[in-house]
Design brief:
Elements: H1 19-48, H2 64-69, H3 72-76, H4 87-92, H5 108-114, H6 152-162, E1 169-173, E2 176-180, H7 186-196, E3 201-202, E4 216-219, H8 223-226, H9 229-242, E5 253-257, E6 263-266, E7 280-287, E8 293-294, E9 297-303, E10 310-313, E11 320-324, E12 340-342, E13 345-347, E14 350-358, H10 363-367, H11 385-391, H12 398-407, H13 413-425
Antiparallel strand pairs: 1-2, 2-11, 3-4, 4-5, 5-14, 6-12, 7-11, 7-14, 8-13, 9-10, 9-12
């Protein structure tokens, strides 16, 4: 048999392409048709045989009624469900406006559904800390003092009577120093330490590094800290205990004292009455761990309950102490009797957390970028032209603030609201 290609039948035409190439093109064309059919077929079937869309899946076993209750419309209703307990912190962190990265952070939609009032999404509500023009960043929105004249001592007596679960004890009553046990859990204390672990810096005194204070500090002014559920829970517990607004408290400051570190005798009141937040009126200090030796809090001008020496408080996990920075009868004036110091740590490391509470909102001007919320201020009037320009016409004068605090204790909430509105319209002298 001869070798080579077999002969073609008579009359057949010679192909212009090799047989192998023709076979390859066939596969390509066949595959393209299959892909096109796969794309078109679902749409064709949906057109020919329409059916209703499935209802959205309800997560976590929630009923349709529960989903409706979490909608903005339901939260806005007068008799609607309460907002989520994290709403204040979420708003402060900016979650009302945009979704933040991270698994633990809620989406903007979740926040808007559960925090409609705080986010300002309800009709006729401005929400928490509504925006203002840049030039009004240091205005005082609420002119009602948190602790008016004659109310400071009653505040301490009320806590003593209403919170037996913390075993409240007066270490002093002139001035008041209140000691609490089991105020913060070990889990909550650990949350403070862990969120601040990478954020400690050398502590400041008088707005600068100072040899009188050698510890480390972490301002809990970032979302991972103040929006941590455990940290926020403690913050709200302090608000409820002292009956002061969330926004009046500064961001918590976590402190760390290593062996040999200390903070010499000082006073916490460092803010002028004419600043938008007004003076610091209360200090709430929590101990976040046991300290083997040293690290006590000492009040050199307050006698010890035993009558021997001055008052010294031992650092114990979960314990807290509360004291005033002003007088009961003069709540805009510093009470120097509450000078205190953090004594040197001899063994181990001491962790603690401060909250300083002001007469007026601190967080509102702070979040607007007011320079007067992160510097010390003194005197009965601004000391510089720059500071005067920030508060002129936006914050009551020293005299107006003192007079309002002396009268507000006898005024009802409606009258106080009316006076606040009158001040914002310019009628500041009629209190």
């Amino acid at each position: 048999m001869p070798k080579g290609n077999p002969k073609k039948p008579p009359g057949s035409k010679k192909s212009a392409l090799p047989p192998k190439l023709l076979s390859s093109w066939g596969f390509v064309i066949f595959g393209a048709c299959g892909v096109a059919l796969a794309i078109v077929m679902p749409h064709l079937l949906k057109y020919l045989f329409p059916h209703p869309e499935p209802k959205p899946r309800v997560d976590n076993g929630a009923t349709q009624q529960q989903q409706q209750q979490s909608s903005p419309k339901a939260v806005c209703a007068e008799d609607g469900p309460p907002e989520h307990e994290m709403c204040l912190a979420w708003h402060k962190a900016g979650y009302c406006r945009a979704q933040r990265r991270g698994v633990s952070f809620p989406s903007a939609q979740q926040v808007q559904e559960q925090c409609a009032r705080t986010c300002g999404l309800c009709p006729n509500t401005k929400g928490r800390n509504p925006p203002k023009p840049r030039e009004d960043r240091c205005s005082r929105d609420n002119t009602t003092a948190a602790v008016p004249e004659g109310e400071l001592n009653r505040l301490f007596e009320r806590i003593k009577a209403e919170y037996p679960e913390y075993e409240p004890t007066f270490l002093s009553t002139s001035p008041y120093v209140l000691h609490l046990k089991n105020f913060i859990s070990a889990e909550e204390a650990a949350a403070f330490q862990s969120t601040c672990k990478e954020s400690f810096e050398r502590s400041l005194a008088g707005d600068q590094l100072n040899p009188v204070r050698t510890s480390f500090q972490c301002w809990c002014n970032f979302g991972d800290c103040f929006a941590n559920p455990l940290v926020h829970r403690v913050t709200r517990r302090i608000n409820n205990l002292t009956n002061t607004p969330y926004d009046n408290g500064e961001d918590l400051q976590v402190v760390r004292y290593e062996p040999g570190q200390f903070y010499r005798v000082h006073h916490d009141q460092n803010t002028a009455v004419w600043a938008p937040q007004g003076p610091r009126v209360l200090t709430f200090f929590m101990y976040l761990n046991d300290v083997p030796s040293g690290g006590e809090t000492a009040f050199p001008q307050i006698p010890s309950p035993s009558g021997k020496g001055h008052l010294i408080v031992q650092p114990r996990l979960g314990h807290a102490i509360l004291w005033p920075s002003v007088f009961d009868e003069r709540p805009m004036e510093a009470d120097e009797r509450t000078n205190h110091e953090a004594m040197p740590v001899h063994e181990g490391v001491k962790f603690g957390a401060n909250m300083w509470i002001h007469q007026f909102s601190f967080k509102t001007p702070s979040e607007r970028g007011c320079e007067l919320t992160y510097v010390n201020t003194v005197g009965r009037q601004p000391q510089t032209r720059e500071h005067e320009a920030l508060v002129a016409g936006r914050v009551p004068t020293y005299e107006e603030t003192v007079r309002a605090a002396s009268q507000s204790k006898s005024l009802d909430p409606d009258t106080l609201a009316r006076l606040d509105a009158k001040f914002k319209r310019g009628g500041r002298d009629q209190v």
